[in-house]
Amino acid sequence: MIEFRFGIGDLAATWFGYSALQETVLSMRARSAGAYYPEQQGWIARWQPAYETLDTELLESLVTPRRWVPDCLIPRPRTPRPDFRAELEVLSATPPELVHQDVLEAYGNDGSPLPPVLVHGLDDPSALLTRIVDVLETYWTRCLLPAWWPRARSVLEADIAHRGRVFSERGAEGLFADLDARISWLDGSLRVTDTNPAVEALSAAIEVAGRGLVLMPTLFALGAQTDIAPDNPPLITYPARGKATMGETAAPAPAAALAELIGPPRARLLALLETPASTTALAHRLGVTPGAVSRHLSALAAAGLLDRTRHGRSVLYRRSPLGDALVNG
């Protein structure tokens, strides 16, 4: 168990964010352990032709058989929504000796032998890192960025919006109780429990001591995990709320009466917007242009059926109480 002890002001320095690079690296878990990530399998099948053009031997070696990842591959974000290529630049600057150490440590914790591609690669960690950065950028560009990432980003943004509401309505105890079963909050201490023996061996009580806490939703974790690097604020990743919606391939059918009242396109949007989503994500789900979605969203918001919230560069829409009453009534 890891226990984080909060002092006065530490909660005020707590923030949420997500990392496109982290999601890119961790997405390989869904390929190697598909039974744990059924909502991702349709996406993997769709981008398979593009995936087969990549350096797949190296890409698949970045996640161990038991889903460990070398720490250096997912550098801690400094801002809530870092740019993917800026993250790659940070990764590129990793000292070669750290690459060597983290790869061996990940496979050592896993208990699995190094794959041949890494055995040979560690002879020259600097060249290996260059090759890793190149394959991650190509994988991102060809497979994830066109359609998967807009949908994934919408889920992550919706999670953060939800957590903000929970924190404002129920405080720290409500927030942490809602994150994950492995997390608990009691008397100013946050506890993260993980039954993995390699994690249990790291048990410690850590003073946050003014450093703040970073909370990161992800689509590729089965439970909360933590990073306790001494020079950085504590970080906890946790399963994103609504990640199962990544498996939805069609919008729910609206009630016939609602479709007759406001028209089928707007009725479908209202049915979708039980949880927040962006214009781009909605367009992908409905198979229409963002411009068409935007016009309908504006009309629904003007009628008081939707609420709008800005999160970074995205605007998220969600049904208002009046919209809920219309859909559920």
Automatic annotation (TrEMBL):
Q: Where is the HTH arsR-type domain?
A: 246-329
**In its keyword annotation, does this UniProt entry include Transcription regulation?**
yes
Protein name, entry field? DNA-binding transcriptional ArsR family regulator
Q: Would the keyword Transcription turn up in this protein's UniProt record?
A: yes
Keywords tagged on the record: DNA-binding, Transcription, Transcription regulation
Any Pfam family the entry gives: HTH_20
In which domain of life is the source organism classified?
Answer: Bacteria
Which GO molecular function annotation, any one, does this entry have?
DNA binding
